[in-house]
Specification:
The chain is an alpha+beta fold and 284 residues long. Helices cover 14% and strands 33% of the residues. The model has no long low-confidence stretch (mean pLDDT 97). It folds into two domains: 66 residues, no CATH class; 207 residues, Fumarylacetoacetase-like, C-terminal domain (Fumarylacetoacetate hydrolase, domain 2).
């Protein structure tokens, strides 16, 4: 299934996409957010399929006001340096343990919504990434059981304010400016993809030019490993997300450097998962 969050008459709603149309699941009596649906466990996703089978009306996908698939994750854990080539371009040794940091919901927008370059920086960088959405709670999850805890996948543009990111050894400041990243467009259940979302082509394009191209099989720490590691310090809950890292080709490492600016359009695409597109605007 492909589920999405959108604005319907000023209120959040949950939809299921079928081609170029969507079924409004909220009108069928289901929750208005994927967060709540995931908390219902496997029965939640099963109820979405049943409601879609019974629905008689559909909405056009065109003109939809998209929201981020998960509205308020209890935890949003981002992964740094998860591709060998990206670590190398930043002059880092490939990590032996995942480099993890937090990303706050106020720092991202949905598909089609503008990414905001803050006026305090000219180093607004792009990072295309896979998102792992937790569907089943657990702590100390073994790598062998980890994929059982994955509810689905999505995309992320981990927009980074580089001059703030490197002010200290901690990356939080450069990764959490309001509306600097994006998440979406939809939530794709694992049955639509290879196990662990492995072997999928990833591209990031700025104004149509390919700047990042890789494959999810090249991640240093795969999906199962990331879920297992992230479940050690705290229990993962349904709706938590893990933003799984970006490959080489970021603007900061290019010569000459390439940064996003007002008027640009940045696209992140992963085979089978979707296309996340956002225009860039200047902040106040």
């Amino acid at each position: 299934m492909r589920l999405l969050a959108f604005q319907n008459k000023g209120q959040p709603a949950l939809g299921l996409r079928l081609g170029q149309e969507i079924i409004n699941l909220t009108e069928q009596g289901l929750p208005a957010t994927l967060d709540e649906l995931l908390r219902a466990g496997p029965e939640g996703l099963a109820s979405a399929k049943r409601a879609a089978d019974k629905a008689r009306t559909r909405l056009p996908l065109a003109g939809l006001q998209w929201l981020a698939p998960v509205q308020a994750p209890a935890k949003a854990i981002a992964v740094g340096l998860n591709y060998v080539d990206h670590a190398a371009e930043g002059n880092f040794e490939p990590p032996k343990y995942p480099v993890l940091f937090h990303r706050f919901p106020s720092s991202w927008v949905g598909h089609g919504q503008p990414l905001v370059r803050p006026h305090v920086s000219t180093q607004f960088d792009y990072e295309g990434e896979l998102v792992i959405v937790i569907g089943k709670a657990g702590r100390y999850i073994s790598k062998e059981k980890a994929l059982d805890h994955v509810g689905g996948y999505s995309l992320f543009n981990d927009g980074s304010i580089r001059d703030y990111q490197f002010k200290s050894a901690q990356w939080m400041m450069g990764k959490n400016f309001d509306n600097s990243g994006s998440f979406g467009p939809e939530f794709v259940t694992p049955d639509e993809l290879p196990a662990g979302a492995s072997g999928l082509k990833l591209q990031t394009r700025l104004n149509g030019k390919v700047l990042q191209e890789a494959n999810t099989r090249d991640m240093i720490f795969d999906v199962a490993t990331l879920v297992s590691v992230c479940s050690e310090p705290f229990a993962l809950q349904p709706g938590d997300i893990i933003i799984a890292g970006t490959p080489a080709g970021v603007g900061f490492a290019r010569k000459p450097q390439v940064f996003m600016k007002a008027g640009d359009v940045c696209e992140v695409e992963i085979e089978g998962v979707g296309l996340l597109s956002n225009p860039i605007v200047d902040g106040d």
